[in-house]
Amino acid sequence: MSLGDKISNKAGELGGKAKETAGAATGDEQLKAEGQADQAKAGLKGAVENVKDAAKDLFKN
């Protein structure tokens, strides 16, 4: 995973956490759910990138 991908995924995760927190603080369930979805999306992207990296390492030889 490139550094840019890592930064992008972390930004998505942190943005999602901020949305979730803001939604919880204001009672906005839709915003809270969007934040949770953003975090899940960032986590999934990170997992896919990790699998790609592992596959590259496996087939490197």
UniProtKB/TrEMBL annotation:
Disordered: region residues: 1-43
Domain CsbD-like: start-end pairs: 5-57
InterPro entries tied to this protein: CsbD, YjbJ_sf
Pfam assignment, any one: CsbD
Domain of life: Bacteria
Family recorded in the similarity comment: Belongs to the UPF0337 (CsbD) family.
Designated name of the protein: CsbD-like
